[in-house]
Amino acid sequence: MSATISRVSLYEALIHLGQFICKNVSWHPPNLYKEYNNYMGPAQHFSYLWDYDLDETQFREILAGRRVLGRLDRDWAARRLLEYAPYEEIIRLLGFPDLIANWPRWRVHIRSKSRKRGFDFLVKWLPEKHPEVCHK
């Protein structure tokens, strides 16, 4: 009997949740994603860390080399960023000087051919055309 009651209660809760979402959130995925992030609170998670329980602060500490969690070190964080993050976020979090200095070491681990070509070009082009952004 209690199993039936809990199933009914769960079903009713899901119905109410669905009604709430339909009334308060546009089903357009970016809006739904934004509402989900607002609901989740201040600890933001990067979309490219979906399979790790790391928030933004922890990831930034690993990327800066101030923290290591098992095999999750600076090189892992940089490769993850280079492989999956948008370009603007890569530059904001990593910066041109670190990208140029460490690209040869990280390059071999990047699977995306288009990302490799793009960063190969950037790492070669920046020092020639804009050397002022290549130094810390």
Word description of this protein:
68% of the residues lie in helices and 0% in strands. With 136 residues, the chain is mainly alpha-helical. It has 2 domains: 1-42; 53-136, no CATH class. The longest helix is centred in the first third of the chain and has 23 residues, at 2-24. The protein is globular.
Strands, helices and their partners?
Layout: H1 2-24, H2 29-40, H3 56-64, H4 74-84, H5 87-94, H6 96-107, H7 113-129
Helix pairs in contact: 3-4, 6-7
Domains, number: 2
Number of strands: 0
Shape: globular
Order of helices and strands: HHHHHHH
Radius of gyration: 21 Å
Largest sheet: none
Average pLDDT, rounded to a whole number, is: 79
Q: What is the helix tally?
A: 7
